[in-house]
Amino acid sequence: MKESEPSLAFLKEEPRIQELEGLEQKAKASGASQLVVKDLNEEFVRNFVFPCLRAGAIYERKYLLGTSMARPVIANRVDLVRLLKLFFYIGDILEDPANEPKEDMYMMSVDPKDAPNQPEYVKIGIVEGLPISLNGKELSPASVLSELNEVGGRHGIGRIDMVENRLVGMKSRGVYETPGGSRTILLAAARELESLILDHETMQIKVILVLKYAELVYAGRWFDPLRHSMDAFMKEITKTTTGSVTLKLYKGSVNVTGRESPYSLYREDISSFESGQIYDQADAAGFIRLYGLPMRVRAMLEKGH
Q1: How far apart are CA 223 and CA 241, in angstroms?
Q2: Arginosuccinate synthase C-terminal domain: from which residue to which, for each copy (predicted)?
Q3: Is 235 left (phi over 0), alpha (psi -120 to 50) or beta?
């Protein structure tokens, strides 16, 4: 950038007043002509967090992709970004993976042992794979996540300590917090609703694709045509992922206690262990014989028959 060209420092958040003190001076000292403060939480959650939630994207079984989801927002319009949907910590004592994280690192959650002794139940309403309500109250995307962060935080939910493979090939250790986010409360709800609605083959393909989806997001390739294509697939298969899930939050744990959907493929009259008109357990005998045929043929071959 030429010296004559104006530059902006853009802070994307709804900060507390004390957090703004001295910020304009710092921005101008860094060469910016002015400081712009704008709350883009709704856009961030709606356009970046929720697509990852719908896909079920997790990098290397643990990482929630919070900072990775922020990168495309930065690429769109900002020079400085601070998003209070996830806290993460690297370096210092964490550089030794044998060290336990300090308790004062955590900003959003209490130690599970200090959480309330009584569980709390939350009911999450979901439409087409995306959460729209909490305990019967319709909320905006950012409000859903914000309230669940608060609820989950007081029950000690959402702490993650992991060693991850960086894009450049090295390993690093980080500690993350996201009580209400895409790996904890919301992800648990979305997965349970999918268990009612998606058939076996669709769930299997989704599990396979989401590994690559998460890798693309982690690598900063949000605008890659491949991710866009996979996003279209995720959107299509979750068109009927509508219903509600009830979860019990207790001392760091998230347990599902109920799920319901008008599109549920679960039928009690079929799934019952008792004999019924739709499903006759005697039919299983023929299926088992046919299903095991390849293994019987292989056994015959190995025995020389």
Answers
A1: 25
A2: 91-297
A3: alpha
Q: Which of 77, 91, 83 is nearest to 64 (CA)?
A: 83
| Model pLDDT, residue 129 | 96
- pLDDT value at 83 more than 50: no
Residues 6 or more apart whose CB falls under 8 angstroms from that of 42 comprise 140, 141, 142
Residue 248 has pLDDT above 90, yes or no: yes
Residues 6+ positions from 24 with CB-CB distance below 8 Å: 34, 35
- In the numeric block, the tokens 């921005």 are attached to 27
How do the domains of the chain map onto residue ranges? 40-266, 267-299
Greatest alpha-carbon pair distance for the chain in Å reads: 86
Looking at the DSSP assignment, which residues form a beta bridge with residue 127? Answer: 130
Which residues share a beta bridge with 131?
126
Q: Distance between CA atoms of 234 and 238, rounded to whole angstroms?
A: 6
Task: Read off the tokens for 61.
Answer: 């079984």
> Which architecture characterizes domain 40-266 according to CATH?
Alpha-Beta Complex (3.90)
Measured CA to CA, the distance from residue 69 to residue 19 in angstroms comes to: 23
Distance, in Å, from the CA atom of 89 to the CA atom of 3, rounded to the nearest integer, reads 35
